[in-house]
Protein: Hydroxyacid dehydrogenase
Amino acid sequence: MSDNAILQVGPLAPQLNDTLQQQYGAVALWQQADRAAWTGAHGASVRVVVTSARHGCDAALIAALPKLQAIVSFGVGYDSIDLEAARARGIVVSNTPDVLNDCVADLAFGLLLDSARGIAHGDRFVRAGSWLQGAFPLTTRVSGKKLGILGLGRIGEKVARRAAGFDMKIAYHNRGPRAGAPWRFEADLLALADWADFLAITCVGGPQTEGLVSRAVIEALGPRGILVNVSRGSVVDEDALVEALRTGRLGGAGLDVFRDEPRVPQALLALDNVVLAPHMASGTHETRAAMAALVLENLAAFLAGGKVVTPVA
Ligand code: DGY
Structure:
């Protein structure tokens, strides 16, 4: 093994796997029978880790790779990468921001529309033959309603722009007001939830947002309110969410992310007031190709000049 080995933590898109393995000789850690034995024997030869938001790179893996200089990740989220451990060793970390903004915002808006208008529920209703027995229940209007956005970053902004096309009133909560944003800043998340008809979560995951959408926030959104989450399951008190959806203390939800993916709380499977998606917001051919290209760009730039194109801030 050369001293410049590239280690790939988990499988990515087949074409990206092939390029990494054929062009860069990347070692597939997930294909090693014993990961710890492999890192014990070869860890000192690894210079770059290629991973993803899903596969991550924790402190134990970083510690097992004493010559590691860069972590190149597929995905915008980096909550599964131990940034503190990386920073302490001066390891560069890159992600794939921006190229997925539109598709994630599209799905957020799709979940919002579906949870309000019952599209997936209506589909089940028709397929089950229930239409022959009677009309579908009335649903909730979207146009002109109030949308709260938790996390007005690049994705949140795209959600706001889509909502403007539906004549929605928009307000957002961030740690502070975002310079130049034309929408109302609300410093108190509880007040935002209380005001909003819909609350869309587009903030980052990780310790700084863990449990931010608490039972109180969920209940402030209320029996007619709808929660949409395309961020991370960790941002929401999931037990409180399930209970509120079950008891009607929250009107509905559209969820692309969960605390223990791919496991989804059993209680949600039986509920018609929640739309469930398998963490698919960035999962279009176009966006995944752009993300793969950015991973390769970051890798090539680091190998050529020691710098990545899109470092994690
Ligand atoms: C991301 O890019 O972070 C997506 O959520 C995929 O994990």
